[in-house]
Amino acid sequence: MAGAREMTARESLWARLRDLLFGPGPGAGRAPASRPGEDMPYEILLEGREPIEAWSVCTVCVNADRTASVQRPRWRCSDCGSAADHQQPLPQYLDENPLDVLDRNLREWLNVKGMRPAYKMLKSARFKCLMTLSRRRQPAPATT
């Protein structure tokens, strides 16, 4: 495939996805919910740099954002533009949507026809990240 290159150890999956969707370099475009030079929200959560209790998720597009910013007046989701009433604290969202529900939602999303491929891939990646975060929150099986 033209333009394909090997992912280096210093590169994250989100950085790779951002470059694929919006082009390399800060002048080429802006990824949803990020500013030039900042990490993607799910990248921060997956690496465990911030607790998930400090984050909210948009129930429309599954975009993650810091809860403190969501609580501002007239806040809108940076990805889909929905109002703050469509935001839910991430731990509450994961409690209400267990792993099997997230998996079913991902499968249903992958079957949607007529969606732009880049957006379909982005939302699919978000569902997979939520599934990973949900698995991490599950209690470890008791050893005897």
Q: What characteristic shape results from the CA principal axes?
A: globular
Q: What proportion of the residues is helical, as a percent range?
A: 40-55%
Q: Which runs of at least 5 residues are low in confidence (pLDDT < 50)?
A: 26-36
Quaternary status: single chain
Radius of gyration: 16 Å
Reading the helices and strands in chain order gives HHEEHEHHH
Tally of contiguous helical segments = 6
Q: Strands of the largest sheet, in order across it?
A: 2-1-3
Rounded to the nearest angstrom, the distance between the terminal CA atoms is 50 Å
What is the residue-averaged pLDDT? 78
Number of strands: 3
Q: Report the sheet-strand fraction.
A: 5-15%
The biggest sheet amounts to: 3 strands, antiparallel
Number of domains: 1
Structural class: mainly alpha
Describe this structure in a few short sentences.
With 144 residues, this protein is mostly helical. It has helices spanning 13-22, 41-46, 67-70, 90-96, 99-110, 117-137; strands at residues 55-58, 64-66, 87-89.
Q: Which structural traits does this protein have?
A:
3-stranded antiparallel beta sheet; 144 residues; globular
Write up this protein.
The protein has one domain. With 144 residues, it is mainly alpha-helical. It has helices at 13-22, 41-46, 67-70, 90-96, 99-110, 117-137, and strands at 55-58, 64-66, 87-89. It is globular. A three-stranded antiparallel sheet has the order 2-1-3. It is built from six helices and three strands, in the order H-H-E-E-H-E-H-H-H. A hairpin with a 5-residue loop joins strand 1 (55-58) and strand 2.
